[in-house]
Write a structure and sequence with these properties.
This protein is mainly α. It folds into two domains: 203 residues, Citrate Synthase, domain 1 (Orthogonal Bundle), CATH 1.10.580; 102 residues, Cytochrome P450-Terp, domain 2 (Cytochrome p450-Terp, domain 2), CATH 1.10.230.10. The protein has 16 helices and three strands. Strands 1-2-3 form a three-stranded antiparallel β-sheet. Helix 2 runs parallel beside helix 16 and helix 9 crosses helix 16. The longest helix is centred in the N-terminal third of the chain and has 26 residues. The protein starts with 19 loop residues before the first strand and ends in a 35-residue tail after the last helix. Bound molecules: acetyl coenzyme *A (ACO). Acetyl coenzyme *A binds next to helix 15.
Length: 390
């Protein structure tokens, strides 16, 4: 039997959305009508989260209330902290996140209240708490006491504070804030699609986010940032880049953090992150990871052109590792940091999937597949009883 070529739904529109637009040819990314460069320059993660959840930019008072509400919801229920303390310290942070997020439903009496207003409230709780979850887990696994969130700090600054126990300087906090903004949303990528697919069954919001976390953890998606750090550490020296890249491509391997299913030019988020990485390298005096990343990018592009006759560009996961490393974040937290930043995007999509005003309403996802397995004619294969089989 012939079967169909699995193209991973590339280029097949499956829904209407008002949340995000991507022009892969021009390298444009727009959240709710606002260009990512504009948001990275002028917005904050809190304001961008409001924009994604409520569809418009907030007024001053609205933003103040939104920020205060987020800050007041950062604390984790004691039952969750007790659970984290019982986890195996060697568990991967993404596995911990994916399994603990649905437990947040145990502590939310509105977990199964399926209205738009209640879902926005749950979205805010998730945005506020996931950063605490990542920071608490990191400290607990290192046998350190978790640090209570500080309501006076912004989301990004508070995350670094809970991780390290020191209030970061303004520049570093702002750099992480921009990282959070550029990771906040990206249309129907694999994890968002997973969230929407689960939302289409009317499952509760925590389940939808848990599905998204599972999809994000894979190395072809959000897990690529941890893999990029492994590549940087393995190469370690700028003089080894060429040999390493050639050997990797000769063996049919992937250069992690490069290539994209949608962008056919440089990912605009990679442009923004490259600037931050360079800025941070200059500020800290530690240029190693930035220089190594830049060299890998140049060599990989050249080699790719020689071998395939076409361009390959860095994606969102290429320069974030050098940034997070310079901020003192452990490599296996890179994907959880991505997840924390993506929470407003996932929540906006779950809400759109469940409560779209457009008609017809989104249907339960149920794609088809071409059966290419065993076939014994219309009667089906003859079932032989176990005792009659060899
Ligand atoms: N290294 C080596 N070869 C690559 C890479 C790469 N990073 N990216 C694409 N290619 C190859 C593909 O294998 C394909 O080869 P083929 O024609 O021999 O089959 C060819 O280039 C064309 O690929 P595209 O159609 O442009 O990309 P595709 O949609 O197949 O893959 C993907 C996109 C999965 C992201 C791929 O580029 C990849 O695996 N990159 C590395 C992993 C990564 O960085 N993932 C993060 C993506 S961003 C995100 O999800 C947050």
């Amino acid at each position: 039997m012939q079967g169909i070529k699995n193209i991973g739904l590339r280029g097949i529109p499956i829904a209407d959305t008002r949340i995000c637009a991507i022009d892969g040819e021009k390298g444009r990314l727009v959240y709710r009508g606002y260009d990512i460069f504009d948001l990275a320059r002028n917005s904050t993660f809190e304001e961008t989260s409001y924009l994604l959840l409520y569809e418009t930019l907030p007024g001053k008072k609205e933003l103040e209330i939104f920020r205060d509400t987020l800050a007041s919801q950062r604390r984790l229920p004691a039952g969750i902290v007790r659970h984290l303390k019982k986890r195996k310290k060697t568990a991967h942070s993404m596995d911990v996140l994916q399994s603990v997020v649905p437990m947040l439903a145990d502590f939310d009496p509105d977990a199964r209240v399926d209205t738009r207003a209640s879902s926005i409230k749950k979205g805010m709780k998730l945005i506020a708490r996931i950063a605490t979850l990542v920071a608490y887990w990191d400290r607990i696994r290192k046998n350190l006491d978790p640090i209570r969130p500080d309501e006076k700090l912004g989301h990004a600054a508070n995350f670094l504070y809970m991780l390290k126990g020191e209030i970061p300087d303004k520049e570093m906090a702002r750099d992480l804030d921009i990282c959070f903004i550029v990771h906040a949303e990206h249309s129907f990528n694999a994890s968002t699609f997973a969230a929407r697919e689960v939302a289409s069954t009317r499952a509760n919001m925590y389940s939808c986010v848990s599905a998204a976390l599972g999809a994000l953890s894979g190395e072809l998606h959000g897990g690529a940032n941890e893999e990029v750090m492994k590549m940087l550490s393995e190469i370690d020296n700028i003089n080894r880049v060429e040999k390493w890249i050639k050997a990797r491509l000769d063996a049919g391997g992937l250069i992690m953090g490069m290539g994209h299913a949608v962008y056919k030019t440089m990912d605009p988020r990679a442009r923004i992150l490259k600037d931050i990485s360079e800025r941070l390298a200059e500020r800290t005096g530690n240029r190693k990871w930035f220089e190594l990343s830049r060299k890998i990018e140049a060599v990989a592009r050249e080699e790719f052109m020689i071998r395939k006759g076409k361009e390959i560009y860095s994606n969102v996961d290429f320069y974030s590792p050098s940034i997070y490393c310079d901020m003192g974040i452990d490599p296996d937290l890179f994907t959880p940091v991505f997840a924390a930043a993506r929470m407003p995007g996932w929540c906006a999509h779950i809400i759109e999937e469940k409560f779209a005003e457009a008609q017809p309403k989104p249907a339960l996802y149920r794609p088809d597949a071409e059966y290419i397995g065993r076939y014994c004619g219309n009667e089906g294969c003859e079932y032989t009883l176990l005792e009659e089989r060899e």
